[in-house]
Every structure is written in structure tokens, then in C-alpha cells.
Specification:
The chain has 15 helices and 10 strands. The chain is of the alpha/beta class. The chain has a single domain, classed as TIM Barrel (Alpha-Beta Barrel). The strands form 2 sheets. It has a 7-stranded parallel sheet with strand order 2-3-4-5-6-7-8. It has a 3-stranded parallel sheet with strand order 9-1-10, with helices on one face. Helix 3 runs antiparallel to helix 11 and helix 4 packs across helix 12. Bound molecules: ligand V47 and iron/sulfur cluster (SF4). The site of iron/sulfur cluster (SF4) has 12 residues, from loops. Iron/sulfur cluster binds next to loops.
């Protein structure tokens, strides 16, 4: 927390900056406009942008930083979409392709039964053949083994793919998954909503509007979901701003989004590996502008897998309040060259947070605090 005197100095400095008008709005709790978003992305004044984002972050969460005891499971990387930014997917029959049986997935869950995991995160490619019964069986089996765990499974893209393949409405797919035990959807597949970028990078994929429709349908059924932005490739600042504003509008309508995750593009082994590498400057600015524009999102996640733990720690002072979690096994970022570890222990996560001067709070999928060893009563 900054002291009174330091706050005065910081406020005088910000009021003299090119972002003074935005500061006044942030201070007064006013919504920022598209133009404000563009000015923030155009500005090189990263420290002021971070200061503004941190004002909001501290207003919402003080010095608390959240983490979750979770397990990631990728059931298959076989995918019909072939997105150019993806190093994870394979076409059916290609070397390196895999699809796990429900028994193999059950074994992964069984191996961790002794750990107090609160969330299992499941995503995969858009498989051409796996029947809907496989997905329902997979979720049902996990819930039978670990009824206490929240299953957060299948992106809007996978849901729309299943609906199309099975000739079902989106809401029918969602309802069946909900009945099997899915409580929330992960935020993947949103990429950048821009049609221009989607045409260049993922023309086969569900459109941005389609993704938003799946999220809204899930919210209407009482399921919650996350949202992402894949940044650091071909997208412009204006396309990033428009993506954030489309999410803000959807959140105004449903209130169903839990958290926003800016996903830092990892380029290795992708169809666009020749792009200039992403910069730390872009990472911090994207997180901070997200915090500033998404005034109706309670949480912004610094996903350490894609950012690396060091950048994720710094991001906690640029608007982020959550680090994601233990993860345990990660393929999407690592097959694209992410140099982070594949897992962190709860102790490592808490140490990272404390070393950044924050108070760690273990949370569940919905950001409810989780009782930890030594806690009296939560
Ligand atoms: O949809 C694909 C992205 C997403 C790359 O909801 C890439 O809590 C970076 O959505 N570099 C899947 N990103 C991951 C995801 C996620 C991860 C952690 C937590 C949550 C959550 C969601 O990964 C995909 C795509 O947008 N992606 N390729 C890449 N080369
Ligand atoms: Fe398939 Fe998702 Fe990879 Fe696109 S990002 S190719 S939809 S697995």
C-alpha cells in the first residue's frame, strides 16, 4: 500500500502527465471510452498506466493475490481448425496427435486424489470423431471420483463444434454438460474477435460473435465462464481495445464472466514463428489496459505459464490480482515454446506472491476463499 505522502507525490506526477484526463476518470470511478483505450495503448508512459491500473486493483482487492490448486487435463490435441498460432494441435493421424481414453484421464485424476485440488480444467482440440457421449462420460467419471472438485471444461469453440457435429443447439450441449457436472467454461478460443485477424490466423474457427453467444448462453443457464485475449501476434491496438469492449458489453448484459486472462502469444513451432518476439512492455501494458477498460470484471489473471513467473509477479502491480494455479501439466503454451515450469507447488505460488509484497489467498474457481491449513474459519 502506498503511504499518504507517496500518494500525493504520485498524484501530482500523474496529473501533469499526458494521461491526466484518464487519471481523473479512473479516480472518479468513471467508465473509460474506446478513445481512452486507444490513448493508453499509444502511450509509452507505462509507469503511469501501471499506477492507474494498480489504483483499481487495490480498490478491488487491496494487497490480496489469488491462486488456485488446480489440475489441467488436455484430453486430445486432434483438431479440425488448424489455427496458425497453435503448436498444440495435430490433424487426425498426424505424428504427435493424441486422444486419451476416459480410463487414461481417470488415471490422471486418481494419481492426484491425495492432493486438495479444487478445480480440474479440461480443454482439447475440435476432434472430428469423438462422440458427445465421450465428453459426458469424461465429466461424469471425474465427478464420481472427485465430487468436491469444480470441473471447468471445454471452451466456447469446443461447445460450438460439438453442437454442430451432433446437430444440437448450443444450449442443449451446455445443459447436458451441466447435468454431467460442468460448472464453468474456461476462457479459451476467444483469441481476438477481429474478423481481419481471424481470417488470417484461424479462418476455420468459430467467429468472435459465435464465441460471445456461447458464453452468454452458458451464463443464461447459470454456468460461469472466463474470457481471454490472445495478444502479441498480428493484432493492432485498436483490435485489442475492441475485443475488450465487446467483453465489457457482454459482461454488462450477463455478469457471468469470472475472470479475464490476457494470453501472451508463444511463437515457437507455430505457423507465425517468424514474428517479432513479444515484449515485456506489451505484456504489462496489455494487462494494465485490460484492468482499466474491464471495469465490470472482478478479476484479471496473470497466467504465469505464458508470462513466466517473474513477469507474472510484476504484473501484480499492473492490474492483475490472480496468478492461476498449480496447473501440473501444460501443453498448449509449452508446445509453443513457453519456458516456464509445467507446475508450481502451493508453497512456490504463495512464496511468489509474498515476495511481491502481497498476501496470498487460495481461491476456488469462483474466487471463494478456500480453507487452508491453520485457517480458523473462513
Ligand atoms: O484457446 C493457443 C491459446 C488457449 C497459443 O479459463 C495460445 O482459466 C499462447 O484458454 N500461445 C487455451 N496461447 C488456454 C486457455 C486458458 C489457459 C489458462 C486458464 C484459462 C482459464 C484458460 O490458449 C487457446 C488459445 O487462445 N493459445 N496457442 C500460443 N501459441
Ligand atoms: Fe484447435 Fe484450439 Fe489449436 Fe485452434 S487453438 S488449432 S481450435 S486446438
Amino acid at each position: 500500500m502506498i503511504s499518504g505522502q507517496n500518494t500525493d507525490i504520485a498524484q501530482r506526477w500523474v496529473k501533469r502527465s499526458e494521461l491526466a484526463e484518464i487519471y481523473e476518470k479512473v479516480f472518479a470511478g468513471q467508465r473509460l471510452s474506446r478513445e481512452d483505450g486507444l490513448r493508453l495503448f499509444e502511450s509509452r508512459d507505462l509507469l503511469t498506466i501501471g499506477f492507474l491500473a494498480n489504483l483499481l486493483r487495490e480498490r478491488l482487492h487491496g494487497q490480496q493475490t489469488y491462486w488456485i490448486y488446480n489440475q489441467h487435463i488436455n484430453y486430445s490435441n486432434i483438431c479440425i481448425n488448424g489455427c496458425r498460432f497453435c503448436a498444440f494441435s495435430r490433424v487426425n493421424g498426424e505424428e504427435g496427435g493424441f486422444s486419451l481414453t476416459v480410463d487414461q484421464i481417470a488415471n490422471k485424476v486418481r494419481e492426484r486424489l491425495h492432493e486438495p485440488i479444487t478445480e480440474i480444467h479440461i480443454v482439447g482440440g475440435c476432434h472430428p470423431d469423438l462422440p458427445f457421449s465421450y465428453y459426458l462420460d469424461l465429466v461424469g467419471t471425474i465427478k464420481e471420483m472427485r465430487p468436491e472438485v469444480t470441473v471447468k471444461a471445454f471452451t466456447g469453440v469446443e461447445i460450438a463444434h460439438l453442437a454442430q457435429k451432433e446437430g444440437l443447439a448450443i444450449s442443449e450441449v451446455l445443459l447436458a454438460l451441466k447435468e454431467a457436472g460442468v460448472e464453468a467454461l474456461p476462457g479459451g478460443g476467444a483469441e481476438v474477435f477481429s474478423n481481419r485477424v481471424r481470417k488470417l490466423l484461424c479462418p476455420e474457427k468459430l467467429s468472435g460473435n459465435g464465441w460471445l453467444e456461447v458464453a452468454k448462453a452458458a451464463h443464461q443457464l447459470g454456468m460461469r465462464s472466463n474470457a481471454t485475449l490472445l495478444y502479441g501476434h498480428l493484432e493492432t491496438a485498436a483490435e485489442r481495445v475492441d475485443h475488450l469492449l465487446a467483453l465489457r458489453k457482454a459482461q454488462d448484459e450477463t455478469g457471468g464472466f469470472i475472470t479475464f486472462i490476457p494470453l501472451a502469444f508463444q511463437s515457437a513451432n507455430t505457423g507465425i514463428s517468424d514474428l517479432q518476439p513479444r515484449t515485456g512492455f506489451a505484456d504489462l501494458k496489455t494487462i494494465a489496459v485490460s484492468r482499466l477498460l474491464l471495469d465490470n470484471f472482478a478479476h484479471i489473471k496473470a497466467y504465469w505459464i505464458m508470462l513466466g513467473t517473474k513477469m507474472a509477479q510484476v504484473a501484480l502491480y499492473f492490474g492483475a490480482d490472480d496468478l492461476d494455479g498449480t496447473v501440473m501439466e501444460e501443453r498448449i503454451g509449452h508446445m509453443a515454446g513457453a519456458s516456464s515450469a509445467e507446475a508450481l507447488t502451493p508453497e512456490e505460488l504463495e512464496n511468489l506472491i509474498r515476495a511481491a509484497g502481497h498476501e496470498p489467498v487460495e481461491r476456488d474457481t469462483f474466487f471463494r476463499p478456500v480453507r487452508t491449513k491453520g485457517d480458523a474459519a473462513i
